[in-house]
TrEMBL record, chains A, B, C, D:
One of its GO terms (biological process) is dGTP catabolic process. GO terms for molecular function: dGTPase activity. This is HD domain-containing protein. Residues 62-187 form the HD domain. PANTHER family: DEOXYNUCLEOSIDE TRIPHOSPHATE TRIPHOSPHOHYDROLASE, DEOXYNUCLEOSIDE TRIPHOSPHATE TRIPHOSPHOHYDROLASE SAMHD1. It holds the Pfam family HD_assoc_2. The lineage of its organism: Bacteria, Bacillati, Bacillota, Bacilli, Lactobacillales. It comes from Aerococcus kribbianus. InterPro entries: dGTPase-like, HD/PDEase_dom, HD_assoc_2, HD_domain.
Length: 455, 455, 455, 455
């Protein structure tokens, strides 16, 4: 085959999508990629992880999201091709030979994600970006085999788009930039499934005001307010959905549960072998790509459930129970600079109540979460959002919009300390009344939602 | 406690729901039930099972649906209480003492469902209705413990609502009738998540035209068209979503996969023990309620994945691969009376190609699926939909609506024979070209979508 | 110019549309047509006339609807062009030279509508279809001048599409058939603006399963349920929205008001001249196309308001008051065959109360309203809905769908007698208590909603 | 009657509303108010005036909006009554005796609006706020008659709520504050009908986090992001919808048209009498409340149409043509300080082309438009948005939200000079080629969208 023949259209296939109505597939290559086992595996990995414990509707998978990113990219490319077709190399317009390249990259951009990625990566030192690369470029995967049919270099081309080293900046920015197809899909999709409206910016208008340009993608100045709306949607989704304190309370439990399992395995592998076979390579820190591809949400939850029922370790069982049966850690915010003594005091109180604070408390800073806001002055100036005025001059977005300027360069979020929920409401639980003075103290320090000194 | 104290309102808690905007919880008892591990387990069981393989958005869980049924019931009861409050016993109006009873029943009506219920039940002889009863009435469950706090008989009261033996027919019909809160929620919810509009009847209008009545629930004659619309929505959802041939093609694979596992276990349990611990009791046909509660979608899929990688049985691995990696059986319709010879011929051809037809073909009649259409003249006339005219007379719906009459008493659906997808497109697959004449024959018999005689 | 040059694309212009998101204009000719005064005049004519008095949101104009019909047609044609482009004349596929023709026809199909067409036509013997033709073909209109720029025959071509005499049946059926762009737009649009969901069929799926065909437009058999859904939507919209008894109660007042004005003018034109200048030609039965184009909803309502304040005729003022201030006639259904005596009796009672029954009562049969249901066996068999099976055979829809068969050939609707609202609730109005026995009788005859004999 | 008896509930009546699904009417008094001719008149006055020329869907009336404000208020009051019922006078909680008062005020708050208010007021010195007061308190209106049935002082009570002098600040702020029921309805309603999503903030969440408080209404601190979202929606709607340059281009024509009529009448009333009877009192500057109530959109448009056809004044006819047939003035922005010379130059050029710049140009500053952004530090500090923290302290919104701070105290909008559209594209119009050099100059000064000096 070749890029030219891979670009041939087939009779359109569709996927009914609640967010985009239909996802249109027009190339055999795309259909073949969707049917690989690596893509199908994304059906078994939830897009938002622990957020379902706060927003019960948000049970959608990374598979749905991947189709959505593909579809948004397809629509943009259709528009570019209709309105700004390149006439000659280097004219800064859209070269439709890139179509099949960018569509593959869009579809595959998240292929390396695993179950509860953000937490899993911290404990087991996996890296979903490196794994995305591996899945695309390793000859053992079905994805690679499908891509290689185009040409031997095609997998590396797709990988380079995702890695941002591909020479055409338009292609790169469609997949990775401050306002790319990936973010556009997840904002509207996560809005739809959570049932909130915050991420619901004016997608059709954004698509209308996008242009290909010599150095990438720009936006009509006339569309500035639609871009502002998008930036605000991102902000709202992070503040209200992605950083929700209760979801993070579940994520902290997951983190502690995995950590406990990893620690226990070091002591004695009998706890986990042979009943958690797919995790052993990770406990052993000696895993292959195939091992990684065996994992999904269901596998982890199955093992948690088995641990809950069968594992003799009380802490492991208890944490598995908290996770499976939704008993989130409670939290209060704190100030990293001023609250060191208060943090120490709180941990002491919790320890005195008999909890192993290593597994039963956690500090979480939402700034550390691997999502990011719009930040135009970062190290890579190419991904600034640029507005194109009628007379051809460019304006960087925050220079034009004082609303966006309010967001610019200022990280948002908070820092929280997490601890078992029962400590907060402890006084109502008769069975722990013995410790009442300690609970009183914890209550005093946390009752306003912000950590404060004990009176 | 008592029903009266359980009926006390607490400060409202809400769950953000994409279908009903908010689910409002106003009683501690409801909140405690939601927090039981049996309810939380429903988060890990998809509402539509294999339908996600056709409608990728429909990844919502039975937990979401259960909250939705609760919320619709709550809204109906609020309306009944506001508009038709009982003044004295036996006046046929709404007695608000029933509120907490019907809300508990609404929330718990599906608590006995397990993973891929319809298929699992066939292979392992479980019964989700009996299990619902068991979960409510067995002292070992958290659900039962929460309910028992109201009174020792309260669990049985709730069970009797779900079993339709509760004395107040209004309460029973809100949960189980031709137009109950259960169906109302799943039609709109499944519509929302599939991204189709077929189930999207006029819920608010239906709620407005419902009345409590001596013998149950009736509808204003003026609302007849809204009820017609609901009946049509049900029909459309069954025809277009629930009976989709491709989803059934995945369900058939699941059925064959579980059957193969059950058969293999009889031969030699070493295949499954100890790596599929939660399934052993079912293979042994000796399971407890706790065993049942250990199961969920993730557990089964985890075991399937382990079988795919580790199990030496080729058929089991292959079927696990087809299920996990979405390789649905292909199908054609047939006529049970006329096509017996054709069926036999087709099976012979498939067998000659080396397939064990016991595991690689399946007949599926959608009439057998445990959903049902509106059928007013069934054995239980109480669940007819009755319209109340201005002068107080009642008319049974199909007498008033010729549209509904078109549906009445006529089962819809089809019968299909399922077989491996590769046989249908076989001629394009070089590696099986040896068998070409056989494949030609299969192709001839199936290419119109209806089984037909070989020329 | 020529059809070829009129078919040249211009940089896309868009209209933001709440139903279709955007309406895309890609030809200068279409833009010029939209900007004619005849099209702009449709902004001042409501799509649903008196229905706004029942559904206050349904205030949208025929202008919006015309853009919508254009846009649906454009999307169908795009799909036809992409999927079924004609290779040679007579191959039954889509000939894209027809694009500009069908788009013009779609945009202009309702151009001849006037204010409250259905009522106005009855009193003043205008005919919106003839007027559509006149506006397109008369050299004095801007529409004609724009069309003529393409070629001298172009206006007649467009007219022949709307009149169904154009040679290409695909073009004709896109604009006028049982499932055309006109109906598709008004069902979804009227649903959107009334705030009901009944007309909200699966438009995108319908567009997907449409095909051009030698004799017109057909639908994939696989899309049968989507077509059923459309037919049901039509039925529901007629039953619940278009035939709503209260809207018709306002329409009856409008009818009587215009009739009274026409009758009065015959007696003495001084009542109306010079203050209602735009109506004089119609009173005189001697009007030109320009006279017709002067009329719109605002003009009529302005004159009604002036009559209310200034006209010495008590009946005219009173009817104007009832119309402007929303005092609909009340109605009951009756049986044309059995209720003749009851009708006579009721009219006598109303007359005895001092009402001129010529202006204060009205019979309305909704079967007479100029909308129609799906009727596949009508005199024009070309407009049957045909389903195309995989093997190439055609099935007429009602043969395939028992649901549609329930609608087939059976007119729906009812007959009602309308009378002043105050007679129904009369007993509560003290100032007419003198007539109480008569009111008692009227109340008895009408209180069940169906006309019945006086006891 | 009395407030107590007016507060009695009646069997619920509903209005189907596309924005709020249903509007629920539960008091006879509200129903009677809706049925007054002054309320019904609002059906004939569009909510957004000239915006329909840009957003063709936005044809909704002030009647729809008034019902919407009523409904939002009703929902807030229901929530207040359920969650924060006053126990004793002065406790700062919700006193449900205020319910009927605030509902009447909500329904009637816009009753004094006339056709194209903002423009009409400028030319004819009417004042919709004073007229609202007059309609409520003048004994001749039906509204007043209905209100007076409650008590002689009741009309003044309602008026004082709208005038912000009513003693209970909660009642006042529900109707008039930075985040009141009026604005909440128009943002979501105008979004719905324009088909944009900008005004679509999280209404249900806002309602959830509102509290009555001693000095008015406050919001839970936890709901800060929902309030931010609302403020951003307001900003977006003003920037993108209400201040749209093309809508203002139509408004400028309307302004010039009315001014021309007023000026002409001073010269010679024969132009308008007797064919524009309802406008004469305004030309005469001697009008009554009844005269005002005779006006609506249709009346003005009818007169414009008559002027277009019959009036001998060329400027009046031409401006009427531009308005009725949508020929908006074109505009460019300018800087009030720096562009004085440029403005003068441009006006000179236009005059040299033969236009009377008094009627054919206009300066428009959107800051002058009678909508306003959130401005917490204005002269009335009570209407600041206050957030209530868990420990009972209050924070003013912009102190808590840097996003809102970006908006605070900074007027947004622009200044534009408007001129005939044909001058902008003049060079393409052959018939004015004589003036080409002048047109060239105009083109040069305006082609970037910002006024600039002639080279």
């Amino acid at each position: 085959m070749s890029i030219a023949s891979a670009s041939q259209r087939i009779p359109e296939k569709v996927f009914r999508d609640p967010v985009h109505d239909y996802v249109y597939v027009q190339h055999q290559l795309i259909l073949d990629l969707i049917n690989t086992k690596e893509m199908q595996r994304l059906r078994r990995i939830k897009q938002l992880g622990a957020s379902i414990f706060t927003f019960h509707g948000a049970e959608h998978s990374r598979f749905s999201h991947s189709l959505g990113v593909y579809e948004i990219t397809r629509r943009i490319v259709d528009k570019f091709y209709r309105s700004y077709p390149s006439q000659e190399p280097g004219d800064g317009l859209w070269d439709d030979k890139e179509r099949i390249v960018v569509l593959c990259a869009a579809l595959l951009h998240d292929i390396g994600h695993g179950p509860f990625s953000h937490t899993f990566e911290k404990i087991f030192a996996t890296d979903h970006e490196a794994l995305t690369q591996a899945i695309i470029t390793s000859p053992e995967t079905e994805v690679n085999q499908v891509l290689r049919q185009v040409s031997p270099e095609f997998p590396e081309m797709i990988d380079s788009v995702i890695n941002k080293t591909y020479p055409n900046p338009q292609v790169v920015q469609l997949i990775s930039s401050q306002i790319d197809a990936d973010r556009m899909d997840y904002l509207v999709r996560d809005s739809y499934f959570t049932g909130t409206n915050y991420g619901n910016f004016d997608l059709t208008r954004i698509l209308r005001v996008m242009h290909p340009y010599k150095d990438g993608i720009v936006f009509d100045y006339a569309g500035m307010h639609a871009v502002e709306d998008y930036v605000t949607s991102r902000y709202q989704m992070y503040m209200q959905i992605y950083f929700h304190p209760v979801s993070r309370g579940m994520e902290m439990i997951l983190n502690r549960l995995m950590q406990r399992a990893a620690d226990l395995y070091q002591d004695d592998s009998i706890y986990f072998d042979p009943q958690s076979p797919f995790l052993i390579p990770f406990f052993e820190k000696n895993w292959t790509l195939n091992d990684y591809l065996n994992l999904d949400d269901g596998v982890l939850q199955c093992y948690f459930a088995q641990w809950l029922v069968q594992n003799p370790d009380a802490i492991l069982s208890d944490l598995a129970d908290r996770f499976l049966n939704r008993k989130p850690f409670k939290s209060v915010t704190f100030d990293k600079e001023k609250d060191q003594a208060n943090l120490a005091k709180l941990l002491t109180l919790i320890e005195e109540l008999g909890y192993d604070t290593h597994y039963y408390t956690a500090l979480n800073s939402s700034f550390d979460l691997p999502y990011d806001f719009y930040r135009p002055n970062a190290e890579k100036p190419r991904t600034q959002i640029e507005l194109l005025e009628k007379d051809g001059t460019m304006v960087e977005l925050s220079q034009a919009s004082s609303l966006v300027q309010a967001f610019t360069g200022k990280p948002r979020g908070d820092q929280r300390i997490y601890f078992p929920n029962e400590l907060y409401y402890g006084k109502n639980h008769d069975h722990i009344s013995l410790f009442e003075p300690l609970l009183d103290n914890i209550h005093d320090m946390t009752r306003t939602g912000k950590l404060r000194a004990l009176d």
